[in-house]
Each structure stands twice: as C-alpha cells, then as structure tokens.
Design a protein that fits this description.
Rossmann fold; 6-stranded mixed sheet; 14% strand; binds iron/sulfur cluster; globular; 469 residues; 4-stranded parallel sheet; single chain; alpha/beta; Nase/OxRdtase_comp1; 3 domains
C-alpha cells in the first residue's frame, strides 16, 4: 500500500507547468522564471552563484561585504584545487553588524581592503555585495575604484546582492566582473592552436585532467576559467583561438562577450562520460583544423577508451536495470549524466535542473525514455514524491539533495561542489562507475528500506486511526 504521507503530497498549482512527464502530453515546460512563492526551491542566491564561479581564482582576494553568515555559507564552497596559491580558500568578510546597517559599511570595507591587500598582495580583488549591502546602498563601486587607485591592485565589485534574482543572475554578475580583467594582458606568443577552458572548476583536479588531454592533442590552453584560475592568464585569454565552454549556465555570457569584442568563437562541451568527453576533444580538433592535432586526438581517444571499456564491464553487470534520478545545477550536465548512466546499463527516471532553459529541456526530453519526469527548479517535497513514485535506486545531485535521498533511504552520489573524486574525463567515468556501483549495491539500503516500511506502516496506522476517530 502506498504511504499516505506521499499520496497527500500535492504539487503546488504554480509549479505544475515546471514539470513534464515524457510521453504523457506534448512537450512543454516552464523554466527560467523566479521560483514559485511557497516552494522551497533548491536554488541558491545571486551571491552564491557569483561566488561559486569566481571562487577558484586562486591568486585573487575574495572579500564578502556583508554579514558573516553569507561568508560562512560559501566558505570553501567548491572542492576547487589550486596548483599554487591557496588564497581563494580564505573567506574574508566585513562582518556587517547592526551599527553598520544604520551608519553604512563603506568605511569598514575600505579599512578591510587596505589591510588585506597590504598583507596578501593579491593579483586582484573581488568584492561581493550581499543582500544587506543592496538594502543600505553602500557605494561599493566607488570604494573599489579608490582602492585600485591607492594600492595598484585591481579591485573589482561583484554586483551580487542575494535577493535580486537567482543563482543564474549570480553567474551573470561573475561574468561581468571577469570581463573587467579580460583584454588587459599581453597576448604575444600565444599559439594559433589555442583554447580557453571555460566553466570547469577543477573539482578534485578535473581541470588538470582535461587540460592534459588538450595538451596531448598539441593544443595550448591559455586560461582555465575559473578552475585553478590565475588573474594574469585571464587578462590575456582574449588571445586564444577558441573558447570551449562547459557548464553553459555559468560561462556562456563571458564567452559571448568575448565573441562580440574579440571575435573568438564558442563551442559547448561536456567532459562527463565517454561519448561527451570524446566529442569535446574531436570538436576542438575539427575546429582547429590541423592534421597533427586530429591524429593526436584519434590516438588519445582510442587509447583511453580501449583502456576504460573493459574496466566498466564488471560494474555494468550489477547495475543493469537500476533506476537513477539526476538533479543538477545546469541542465547540460544532466544530459551527460543520462548518457553515462546508460553506458552503465542504468535508466534515468527523473532528470531536472535548477537553471535549465527551453533548449536544454527540449534536448533532455528528447534523450529521455518514455515516462521520465523532467523537473525545472524543483523542491524537496516534489523530488521526494517522484523518487518514490518512480522507484529510484539512486539520486545524483548536490549537497542540498543529499539529505532528501538519505531521509528516503536511497543511495546518493554527489556530482557537485563538495566531492573529492574527479568525475570528468575517461578516468572520471571509471570513478563515476565505481561511485554509482558502491552506492547502489551497498547492503545498507536494504536495512533502510525495512526501517522505512516500519515508519510508513506506523504513519498509515496513525492516519487510519485519525480518520476513524
Ligand atoms: S546574500 Fe542574501 S540570500 Fe545570499 S547568503 Fe547572504 S543573506 Fe542569504
């Protein structure tokens, strides 16, 4: 019998248009809208959006102008590794208090920047505005100009007041900030066979894996934006021949700005799964149109795939027919997830994202099997309801989705900021298979299912007794 608490989980009226079941009705989904009031969205705020994008620039100072909670919430937010400086891992804040809210926080910000820049001598400084700064109206831009002039360290305001939109608006604020650096460095000596890697954040060293592939192909990587990022590389990245954009939600705007200003073409890429990883490398080789690069790419893909495929077989055997749910930040990543799960013999029964657009969701539903639920900007109740209804064995998502899975007694795999295992590239696909296999086949879920059954029958009994009395 189905649990009564689940059957009473209704979808909010305003949310219905954001949910589509493939095959039930012609495809139509609402997206790119403000979250529905009353729905506890899984999305983060504008400030958080800009923080996750800029955070991996390792030799820059990152100062959060706001209450300490905003800084604590985003402290070391990504497992973004640096091959050199570690300054990005600090979370500096002006710690605005009641007095500052009344009299303004500009002096405090100025003083903090003078001290920090003198102490750390960073290559640049990013100053993030939070909700309260938007309300009290501190002129952060003027302080940044003054500090830049006095210290010679470029100090860039990030207009990321948390309340003024969604995480996606934070991406835009971050791109505007980065745009102030692009074009200010010397491009001499950059090869015509060169690219920038945009939208990879070096979680567990993934940017290094991807950069190594491109270098083995004979391609120069001018800047990695922002994984293991450096200010001086970003300053000269307008000298690259091509921008390769992953995580299209966060970096497309910067790539578009560079296309308009410097004529640099853009290609989209995903580095997850065998198909998408290989395609990303071949797309770059084709664009650069160089025989040696193409030959190197063919050799690389052949070598890596022939090593990987036999290793995946043993995982596939156990995972065949298992059902997964995928909830990601941008929808482009969800597409790669579906393909990777298919490689492992698994079926995706729910696929959703926080910030997908019409085009992304159309591709998502095209790729999905009949009956797959597609969700835009979901909330915990909806997600729990569909996980139950679709009998998912596994949820793949980020830190905010983890407790939902565990409360339901389901396996969970982190595919977002906090993980310590690289999932990009060919070796990443093997890690992904190991992660999924270890989670789905863990015996602990059988115990959790028993416990859940007890809880449900007790809940149903209480409901029945309530109905009878
Ligand atoms: S910027 Fe606003 S919404 Fe974001 S963490 Fe700070 S207070 Fe919360």
């Amino acid at each position: 019998m189905q649990d009564k608490t689940m059957t009473t989980t209704d979808i909010l009226e305003g949310r219905k248009a954001h949910i589509h079941e493939k095959g039930a009705v012609p495809f139509n989904i609402a997206c790119e809208k403000q979250s529905v009031a009353g729905s506890v969205s899984q999305r983060a705020c504008v400030f958080c959006g800009s923080r996750v994008v800029l955070y991996p620039i390792a030799d820059a100072l990152h100062v959060i102008h706001g209450p300490i909670g905003c800084a604590a919430y985003t402290w070391d937010i990504r497992g973004a590794w640096s091959s050199g400086p570690q300054l990005h891992r600090m979370s500096f804040s002006t710690d605005l208090q009641e007095k500052d809210v009344i009299y303004g926080g500009e002096k405090k910000l100025y003083q903090a920047l003078v001290e920090l820049i003198e102490h750390y001598r960073p290559k640049a400084a990013f100053i993030y505005s939070t909700c309260i700064v938007g309300l009290i109206g501190d002129d952060v831009e003027a302080i940044c100009r003054r500090i830049s002039a006095e210290t010679g360290v470029e100090t860039i305001p990030v207009h990321s007041e948390g309340f003024k939109g969604s995480k996606k608006d934070g991406y835009s604020a971050a791109c505007n900030a980065l745009n102030q650096l692009v074009g200010t460095g010397d491009t001499n000596g950059i090869s015509p066979l060169s690219i920038n890697i945009l939208g990879d954040f070096n979680i567990a060293g993934e940017t290094w894996v991807i950069k190594d592939y491109y270098e083995r192909m004979g391609v120069e990587v001018v800047a990695t934006i922002t994984g293991d990022g450096r200010v001086d590389d970003i300053r000269r990245c307008h000298g690259a021949a091509l921008n390769v954009v992953q995580c299209s939600g966060s970096m497309t705007q910067l790539a578009t700005m560079m296309k308009e200003k410097y004529g640099i073409p853009i290609i989209r890429a995903s580095y997850f799964g065998i198909e998408d990883m290989s395609k990303a490398l071949y797309d770059v080789a084709e664009y650069l149109n160089d025989k040696t690069v193409m030959r190197n790419t063919q050799n690389l893909v052949r070598d890596e795939v022939s090593k990987l495929v036999p290793q995946l077989r043993k995982y596939k055997k156990d995972l065949k027919g298992k059902r997964a749910a995928v909830y990601t930040g941008g929808a482009f990543k969800a597409l790669s997830m579906i393909r990777s799960l298919r490689t492992l013999g698994m079926k995706t029964v729910i696929a959703g994202s926080q910030t997908g657009n019409q085009q992304d969701y159309a591709r998502l539903q095209e790729l999905s099997d009949e009956g797959t639920i597609i969700l835009d900007d979901t909330n915990p109740l909806e997600l729990a309801k569909f996980l139950e209804e679709k009998k998912a064995d596994l949820l793949i998502g980020g830190v905010k989705e983890r407790p939902i899975a565990y409360k339901l007694g389901l396996g969970f795999c982190d595919h977002n900021h906090e993980r310590k295992i690289g999932l990009a590239g060919f070796e990443g696909m093997l890690n992904f298979a190991k992660e999924v296999h270890g989670t789905v086949t863990s015996p602990v879920w059988k115990l959790a299912a028993l416990h859940r059954k007890d809880v449900w029958s007790a809940t149903s009994r209480q409901h029945r007794q309530g109905d009878e009395s």
